[in-house]
Fold this sequence. Notes:
Elements: H1 7-38, H2 42-87, E1 92-98, E2 104-110, E3 116-122, H3 128-145, E4 151-157, E5 164-167, E6 170-174, H4 175-188, H5 198-209
Parallel strand pairs: 3-4, 4-6
Antiparallel strand pairs: 1-2, 2-3, 5-6
Helix pairs in contact: 1-2, 2-4
Amino acid sequence: MPSGPTVPARLTASRTSAAIGWLIVAAIALGAGDQLATEGNGILALVALIIAVPCAGMAWHGRSMARRARTGARADRLVRAAMAPLARSSWRIQNSVSLEDGGDLAHVAFSPAGAAFVIATKPGRHSSQDLQSVRDHAVSTERRYRPAGGCYAVLVVARGVSRCQIENGVIVCTVDRLVDALASTSTHGQPLTGLRPASVLTALGRLVGA
C-alpha cells in the first residue's frame, strides 16, 4: 500500500481548482452579459446572467469545501508530526495509504512488537459512522497483514480537551495523547481497560447479535 499526499491535501487542491474554474466561468458570463446589455441585446444578456449566478454559487460552495479540506489537511500534518518520534524508533509509518477498493486510510502504523494501528483523523467532532469506518478499515488491514499483535482502530481528534478513551472499540484521542496511546497498546495490549483488536471486537459483536 503506497503512501502519498494526504487525502485532505488532494481534496484541497481539487476543490480549489474547481472553485476557481466555476469563478472564471461566472466572470466570463457576467462580462458577456454586460457587453450584450450594452449592445441592447437584453434577452441574451439575461441568459448570460442566468448562467453566471449558479456558476458563482458553485464557486462559493467549492471555496467552502476547500476550506474544510484544508482543515483536514492541517489535522493530518499534526498527526504526521506527532508520529515522527515513532518512525525514528523502529516503527513503520505509512501515510495516506491507498486501498484496493479505491478508498484511503490516513495513516497505518506498525510497531516493533507486531501490533498494527489504522489511524483516522478528524478536525473536531466525530460521529458513530466515523468510528465504524475506522474499525472496518482496521479489520480489513488485520486480515491482509495478519500482524502478530493484532490491528487496532484509532481516531485522532485534532481539536478539543486532551483525552484518550475507548469508544465502541476505537481508541479516540487528541494529538498530544497519540504516541502514548500507540506505545502503551503495543506494549501492554491496551491503553485503557477493555480494548481488544478490531477483529476480535467485530467477532464479539456478531456473537452478541446472534
